[in-house]
Design goal:
Radius of gyration: 24 Å
Helix content: 25-40%
Largest sheet: 9 strands, mixed
Structural class: alpha/beta
Number of strands: 20
Number of domains: 3
CATH architecture of the largest domain: 3-Layer(aba) Sandwich
CATH class of the largest domain: Alpha Beta
């Protein structure tokens, strides 16, 4: 519930309103629950004011709408039919949500010294960290955790997440996404995170950033935001195994981690998991459902974070680690026609592709297969700009170096993959490859690796929606 007195601190509101007390806020008329205020966010083709009769009939107390001539005419008609609803114009609906969520989260943080906004940025693994950390916390602290849903990590998703924070909430696990310079700053200005983690820096969204140094400036901004907001006292993990992030200067609240012996929290790997050594103690995270060192690293990092904020529940978090399952289409193992398939049809960039391939190779041997038993399917890596040919060639070479003999490249960049691995096979799309894959590939190879950018819809090879 949002304290409506906070509306006075939202410059976007065009006129005074008489609302008082507390209300929830809704932006999707299909999911309206009375009593809530409704914020009409203009769509590309649809005016939400044309779709709110159901919630007005339910007694919606307030509608916030974007102020323009078309909307004013529509609102005048609605006012006559629904005089009990207050219609409040705002300069921009999304800006209004950002302002309101900012005020709400500021007030929430003052209510309890333990209340924390833990934000996650980085090139790879943001969503996995968010899923793992929120899983551990929710298993042990039901009702006290709010986390970004799906990948709602942008200028609209972040404020909508923050507006769901309630008096019962103790910790918010917030994913911050960016594909243009300056977007992380906007999100930090809204959420004011007082703790966080930048996972790593890699070749992501180079179409807009140009090079990895610019990616570091963007994703690493979270460190500077937490430092400023907390005067250097905020808990922040610095990945010393990352050539960019290790340049971040330590603060009184930061902890360095990684495999390097010089780190404060040192990580090592064990069967089905990883350990972290910190202050003379050892934390062990084990899970039989994840693949590769990168995911073991993600899990032990999340265990360390959860145990930092709630040390009294450390042993419960350790047990909860065993129960985590990857989310659909993201680094998950599926069974298809009695074949084991590692499927990640959500996203791909050079560093995540290489990490996943290495992890898959480890799993192949752990499961008792040989590389000759494998089928590797790689889709396009998008948003790499002028570096697109170079990075696809590098990944093609990397697959060859790992020794995988049966490789298929799918998409408009498949020829770039082939330039690094001429022994591979090229197909223009998932649809073109589907019959061959469902026929000879599935029958011939017992273990499969499928990864590519979302646009390829590689899950369609299995008719998964």
């Amino acid at each position: 519930m949002i304290n409506l007195s906070l509306l006075t601190n939202c410059p976007s509101i065009q006129k005074p309103c008489s609302l008082s007390g507390y209300l929830n806020f809704c932006t999707d008329s299909r999911k309206y629950s009375h009593p809530s205020a409704f914020v009409a966010i203009p769509g590309a083709k649809v005016n939400p004011l044309d779709l709110i009769t159901n919630l007005l009939n339910a007694g919606c107390p307030a509608v916030f709408y974007q102020d323009n001539e078309i909307n004013e005419a529509r609102v005048n008609d609605l006012k006559r039919s629904f005089p009990r609803t207050e219609f409040i114009p705002v300069a921009d609906s999304i800006t209004f949500l950002q302002e309101l969520s900012h005020q709400h989260i500021k007030e929430w943080k003052t209510q309890n010294i333990r209340n924390t906004v833990f934000a996650i940025s980085g090139s790879n693994g943001k969503t996995t960290h968010k899923e793992m950390l929120s899983f551990l916390l929710k298993e042990v602290l039901p009702g006290k955790v709010i986390a970004t849903e799906k990948n709602n990590n942008n200028h609209l998703g972040v404020p909508l997440t923050l507006l769901t924070v309630s008096a019962e909430t103790e910790i918010v696990v917030l994913e911050l996404g960016s594909n243009h310079p300056g977007e992380i700053k906007v999100l930090c200005d809204i959420a004011e995170p007082n703790a966080g983690l930048t996972t790593n820096i890699g070749a992501t969204h180079l179409e807009f950033f140009g090079d990895e140094e610019k990616v570091f400036e963007e994703e690493g901004f979270l460190y500077h935001a937490v430092k400023e907001i907390t005067h250097g006292k905020g808990f922040y993990l610095i990945n010393m195994d990352d050539k960019f992030l290790k340049r971040l200067p330590p603060t009184s609240g930061s902890i360095t981690y990684g495999e390097n012996q010089q780190t404060m929290a040192r990580i090592s790997y064990v069967e089905n998991g990883a350990e972290i050594h910190f202050n003379g103690q050892i934390l062990l995270a084990q899970n039989q459902h994840i693949t590769g060192r990168h995911n073991k690293l993600n899990l032990i990092t999340c265990l360390f974070i959860a145990s930092h904020f709630y040390p009294e529940h450390k042993h419960l978090f350790i047990e909860a680690c065993k129960n985590f399952r990857p989310t659909k289409n993201r680094s998950e193992w599926i069974e298809f026609e009695n074949r084991s398939v590692y499927l990640d049809a959500y996203n791909a960039n050079p560093s995540s592709m290489k990490a996943a391939l290495m992890g898959f190779k480890e799993s192949v041997f752990e499961q008792g297969f040989s590389l000759a038993d494998t089928c590797i399917v790689l889709g396009d890596m998008n948003e790499l700009g002028d570096s697109t040919p170079q990075y696809h060639k590098e990944v093609g070479e990397y697959v060859k170096e790992l020794g995988f003999p049966n490789v298929f490249f799918i998409g408009r960049f498949s020829q770039y993959y082939l330039s690094g691995n001429p022994e591979g096979h090229s197909k223009a799309s998932s649809a073109e490859f589907k019959n061959e894959y469902r026929g000879s590939c599935i029958k011939k190879y017992p273990i499969h690796f499928i990864k590519g950018s979302r646009s390829l819809q590689l899950e369609s090879l299995f008719d998964i929606t």
